[in-house]
Recover the amino acids of this structure.
């Protein structure tokens, strides 16, 4: 579907002003498409969209997907990234998170149905909860605490998957579900509260690196341009999924902290604090389906991705100090 290979398309990116969204809009514009970004700027930032208007193929609408979108222009595809994604963000806006994942997703599905557009839904590895099988394949149904504080995110994403599957079954809507595992890279907010920004900002400041629990819990970190490439490939297919998108290289949080310490040249110590409620103990995707269906696997080696991310946060830190 890339503009280089096929005809340019008109693509709506909901949540396009966020971290992943900014990179996705940039990629779609570079591929020759026109992009309509819809975002309520709750966790996203206009600066993630800098320079896009100059292409003449980019429009931004500040709106909440929960309110429904009165869009009558032709649309070829929709990518639904709209949702708070970092734990501090969704824990501080629990009801909005549920509404966005439920009413918001339904509104976009109705739009996709009316427009005859493909809808790619950004789901998450959090649908696996604290997994009882390891590593996680798409067949695993998950182990989520439905009434814990994190459920507002996990269950709204599970609802989003159910809604896509139902629209595909009932109306033949062309939906695709992507289960994204931890993604990092330039463009994340310094105060976003996720593992990589926290550790890098602490390392750059020479402060102790905070580790929740023993640090033996694992994460799989995927560089943002790789995640975006998977979303673009999913747009090109007619496949419901769900498809895992993540880096199968599994590292303990302690190993991630030690690597960031090394790459920043920081003398920071590690500081162990109490574990977070319902924090998953292990995360590692099986990506055979993505390899087979999308021809996708992460290309960016962790050290290379972290170096670029550290350089970005160093610039952010300088700007904050000015
Ligand atoms: P982000 O918070 O940076 O971006 C989300 C964007 O959605 C923001 O721009 C926000 O303003 C917008 N938004 C939120 N609610 C909205 C609403 N009701 N109407 C319109 N816009 C709304 O998060 P991100 O890291 O870029 O994540 C993007 C998507 O990918 C999310 O759906 C997230 O659940 C999913 N995801 C991300 C990761 C990751 O590691 N980054 C992992 C798994 C899944």
């Amino acid at each position: 579907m890339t503009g280089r290979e096929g005809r340019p398309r008109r693509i709506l990116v909901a949540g396009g002003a966020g971290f992943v969204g900014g990179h996705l809009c940039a990629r779609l514009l570079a591929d020759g498409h026109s992009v309509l970004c819809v975002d309520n700027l709750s966790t996203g930032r206009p600066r993630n969209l800098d320079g896009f208007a100059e292409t003449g193929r980019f429009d931004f609408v500040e709106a909440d997907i929960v309110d429904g979108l009165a869009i009558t222009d032709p649309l070829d595809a929709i990518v639904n990234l709209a949702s708070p994604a970092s734990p501090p963000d969704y824990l501080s806006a629990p009801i909005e998170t549920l509404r966005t994942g439920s009413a918001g997703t339904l509104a976009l599905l109705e739009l996709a149905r009316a427009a005859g557009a493909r809808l790619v839904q950004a789901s998450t590895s959090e649908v696996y909860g604290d997994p009882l099988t390891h590593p996680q394949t798409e067949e695993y149904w998950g182990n989520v605490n439905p009434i814990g504080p994190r459920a507002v995110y996990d269950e709204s994403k599970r609802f989003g998957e159910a809604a896509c599957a139902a629209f595909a079954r009932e109306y033949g809507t062309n939906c695709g579900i992507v289960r994204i595992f931890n993604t990092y890279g330039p463009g994340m907010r310094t105060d976003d509260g996720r593992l990589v920004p926290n550790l890098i900002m602490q390392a750059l400041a020479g402060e102790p690196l905070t580790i929740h629990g023993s640090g033996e819990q694992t994460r799989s970190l995927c560089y943002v341009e790789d995640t975006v490439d998977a979303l673009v490939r999913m747009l090109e297919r007619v496949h419901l999924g769900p498809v895992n998108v993540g880096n199968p290289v599994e590292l303990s949080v302690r190993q991630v902290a030690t690597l960031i310490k090394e790459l920043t040249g920081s003398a920071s110590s590690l500081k162990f604090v109490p574990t977070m409620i319902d924090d998953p103990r292990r995360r590692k995707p099986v990506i055979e389906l993505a390899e087979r269906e999308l021809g996708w696997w992460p290309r960016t080696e962790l050290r290379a991705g972290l170096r670029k991310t550290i350089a970005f946060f160093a610039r952010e830190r300088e700007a904050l100090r000015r």
